[in-house]
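Key idea: predict the complex, not the pieces.
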Amino acid sequence: MLTRCLGARRLRQIRRAFRHGAVTFLCLFLTVIVLRGTIGAGKFGTPQQDFDNLRHHLNSHRRVLEEQHSEKTTTTSNNYATFDISTILVDEPPSKDEITRDPKAPYTLGPRITNWDQQRKRWLQQNPNFPNFIAPNKPRVLLVTGSSPKPCENPVGDHYLLKSIKNKIDYCRLHGIEIFYNMALFDAEMAGFWAKLPLIRKLLLSHPEVEFLWWMDSDAMFTDMAFEVPWERYKDHNFVMHGWNEMVYDEKNWIGLNTGSFLLRNCQWSLDILDSWAPMGPKGKVRDEAGKLLTRELKNRPVFEADDQSAMVYLLATERDKWGDKVYLENGYYLHGYWGILVDRYEEMIENYHPGLGDHRWPLVTHFVGCKPCGKFGDYPVERCLRQMDRAYNFGDNQILQMYGFTHKSLASKRVKRVRNESSNPLDVKDELGLLHPAFKAIRLPVSSS
Amino acid sequence: MLTRCLGARRLRQIRRAFRHGAVTFLCLFLTVIVLRGTIGAGKFGTPQQDFDNLRHHLNSHRRVLEEQHSEKTTTTSNNYATFDISTILVDEPPSKDEITRDPKAPYTLGPRITNWDQQRKRWLQQNPNFPNFIAPNKPRVLLVTGSSPKPCENPVGDHYLLKSIKNKIDYCRLHGIEIFYNMALFDAEMAGFWAKLPLIRKLLLSHPEVEFLWWMDSDAMFTDMAFEVPWERYKDHNFVMHGWNEMVYDEKNWIGLNTGSFLLRNCQWSLDILDSWAPMGPKGKVRDEAGKLLTRELKNRPVFEADDQSAMVYLLATERDKWGDKVYLENGYYLHGYWGILVDRYEEMIENYHPGLGDHRWPLVTHFVGCKPCGKFGDYPVERCLRQMDRAYNFGDNQILQMYGFTHKSLASKRVKRVRNESSNPLDVKDELGLLHPAFKAIRLPVSSS
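Result:
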């Protein structure tokens, strides 16, 4: 069905291209030649991609309106669309020696595991040097993020991916969190925004020493370097997402929670919810049909293939009894914060507040939902996105630079200026936020509590 | 003197451009238009840059020959040239409120410090939660790297910077090393390959808990994920670089050591050698005149402005008595490895050896000296560089992927394939290199030995 549409769509695209006139066409043609030379071939999309991008682009208008009218945060959780397997298949056919599953068998993330808690507990007892808690109420956390193995379709996108991981390196260094940056596609069927599921399962099972896995989209940045996650608050929960109970359980609103930044405990319960989350993911007919169901069942959801966020809202709304008591929908601070309602208020925040609050006064995370700086089509004008991503990066980076006596000349400026003179007694100088040697980073005696 | 040359040089460039013929020129022109649209203005170099790049390009030919004929590793240590202040000044004039030094005073990295060892020792005693050794013979290490705050002149360069930091994140996660990724220019005068000096001094003085700072260029990648630096070997040394005593002290050969990847102990001696290293750095007349001296005094050095590597060779060769006994020129493994003599041998290494050796059999670091993937002019054809950087990245990444049962389909391929089936007892599966939970990463009781 997908493939049958292609011919017609392509024709319409080509006609549109010609309407742009001969000169424009010549420019574009020459540019493509040169760009291909500079960046390498296979970057300009397959028919599949063009179709996906076109469809996404058509869908996006309704979504933008919804987001802009929403008082609450929102996401398409779609920055992983560049992770589309079609962009990877284009230059290499699948090879014989790959271990692949039987196409007739129903999709699973892997062999069923029912005793993970016991397996993990035993391992932790046998490996006291790898405790799952590095201090009381300080779990060992692995932050997981990633991006496509190929250069961005929009070349400047890679520069923003670089700034985004630099930003995460800074927060994680300060808070004693390890980072796994993924650039591989572990499961072709789960391409796109579903790629995180097999990756997360794989990492939970490979790292029993990790108590919490923190998934964060590549288009989300830390904007409060001082805020420590209130781990103690989640001691009886396994899955923490930014969201609201009423929006998820009562309204079944597809933006009632966000899956662009969440915490998942390493336990059997998490493996189970991943298994229940995954079935709408397999690319093609399954994902497309599931998309229709989700659009029908969820409030305000546009027409597009099944996405991981809608699937989670649907799962929780329909099986609240099974999962609800271990899911914590957090809105006391911005575990995820929608950029549209935050980036223009940074100066106001600097005026009135200080880092460490994590909420609307100083958001922990600013998430560039729908910007897709790496992709061809976002929901917003790319210039606006890039300008605002620079502001968010600099807003967070100022909290790093202040430790060393510098600051950006403005939130719009890449340049830095000195705000403190050098001292010959550098250890007597205290950085205003006390982030150089924060208490939450100090090494304490490991306490294993599995 | 620098500025007076510009007119003539520019003219020659423009004439050369025209010789390429009208069609090529049209292509380039249209491309520039489109690229400016895509990437934004201010990216195509100032006269200063064009001049620097042109001069570097002209110089490069001799250097390439030297490198290709060298049996030993070599570098221009020049990947920081994109850090040229001119690229930053171009869009913003310096502002009034900046704290700047008196231009008549001689350049220093900062106020003189003579009692750092005592200051640091006192701090370590007062902060037992931040020990400088995290285990016996396991110093606390901060890996420092970075790149320009602006997108690369060659757009695909940012994608390789992203892969390069992903690669460093992997090695550092496995070996319990923290990362500081710098994107700011702390000292305009020390732009280019000298930018690391003020940055390193600043970090040593801000982080007394750090015992060793590991500088690594952004164009260097870890290719042996299992190799642990033999820290015990350096217990009586403060400065570890890849190099050879005879080439530095006898030959005064400008490639007798490499400053693209080195270890520096956090102590007074290191502050002192940074002070002695810096004077040739200030941009303009000082750096240009120093360049002439270095080319005159050092073996095989091409004609170009003073670089940090030549300056270090000169310093050690002329003041061996003062510094020599605390400098360890390492050639027992590749703390830095010249890509030209390594990347074509990866298959042979896979055939005959295994990770963990760190030397010619399985190099710890592969350094893409002279490639400048982020800049406009490198010493080598950019396609060759990018192809080889992909091979180096995949060679290192295979050691990460094997932990999770995957591998790249080939050293040339971004795609991965499964090499192990999923197990329902994941903890019984041992990864072949034992990197999932390596002994050198285990937390032990902190021992402070300052």
